[in-house]
Amino acid sequence: MGIDLTVNDFNAKGGINKGKNDDNINKNEVASDVEGELIKSIYMNCISENYNGIDAIIDKEYTRDDIIKDKKERECRRKWLIKDYLAPLLSMKVNYPGICKNNCVSFGIMKIFCSLVINEFKDRIMYKDLQVTSEGPILTLVINGDVCNIKRRVIGIEENHILGKYIDIEVYNSDGTKVNRKNLGFKPKKCYMCDEELSDCINDKRHDVNEMKQCIKNELEKYLKNNEFKN
Ligand SMILES: [Zn+2]
Predict the structure, then answer these.
(1) 62, pLDDT greater than 60
(2) Cβ-contact 120, 152 below 8 angstroms
(3) Could you tell me the distance, in angstroms and rounded to a whole number, from the CA of residue 114 to the centre of ligand 1?
(4) What is the pLDDT of residues 104-146, one digit of tens each?
(5) What biological processes does GO assign it (predicted)?
(6) pLDDT mean across residues, the chain
(7) Largest CA distance in the chain
């Protein structure tokens, strides 16, 4: 499973700057195509060869209320899945700031980590699903295994990958409780703009959203450039 998103791919098509307020309609259309193709390739690589078009919702204009609503829906789905499978559940999303979380950058990061995470748990995966909502792209896995072991492996991915700070991988036990880093004796996740705890920086809105977006975009570009010839 290679990463076929390249730097050119995403610079040429407008990257994160495409925005819904962009006057350049052609640029929007092209960027939107790229996003559609990106999410399709993640889906077909990681979930199923039968793609049924989740890109249709990418263009939707979201609000803060949508994000709250979608988060609640995701919680409900999570509870049902855990009840159905009686096994630990993993939920992965991109730590992307602001209201519009669906773009080449968040999808590019998702593509890299979907492959990694699915490869990590391989045949232990009982259920897998990729969704795109106002929360951004979200991977859900139900995994047959020890929940602490799963969380440790997830922390390993988050800590060892150069882009690991940009994803958020939650792990829930088969009784529905969330397993935190603290529970396993690990330090909380650090912010990617400063050295403080990420959750504090997000809650207190300590950093400028555009600066954060630029930071993620730069890091992804750098990563793709460095890894371009290795694929
Ligand atoms: Zn910070």
Answers:
(1) yes
(2) no
(3) 25
(4) 999 999 999 999 999 999 999 999 999 999 999 999 999 999 9
(5) prosthetic group biosynthetic process
(6) 85
(7) 51
Instruction: Note the pTM of the prediction, 2 decimals.
Output: 0.84
Spell out the residues 6+ positions from residue 107 whose beta carbon is closer than 8 angstroms to its own: 35, 38, 39, 42, 137
Handedness of CA 56, 58, 63, 69 (dihedral sign): positive
With 80 as the cut, is the pLDDT of residue 20 above it? no
Instruction: Round to whole Å and give the CA distance between 113 and 42.
Output: 10
**Could you tell me the distance, in angstroms and rounded to a whole number, from the CA of residue 158 to the centre of ligand 1?**
17
pLDDT band at residue 11 using 50, 70 and 90 as cut-offs: very low
Quote the CA–CA distance of 219 and 223 in Å, as a whole number.
6
Distances in Å between the Cα of 81 and the Cα atoms of 50, 51, 90, 118, 182 are 22, 22, 11, 18, 25
pLDDT above 70 coverage of the chain, percent: 82
CA of 198 to the centre of ligand 1 (A): 6
**Nearest residue to 85 via CA among 144, 149, 129:** 144
Beta-carbon neighbour count of residue 23 at 10 Å? 7
Ligand 1 centre to CA of 110 (Å) is 22
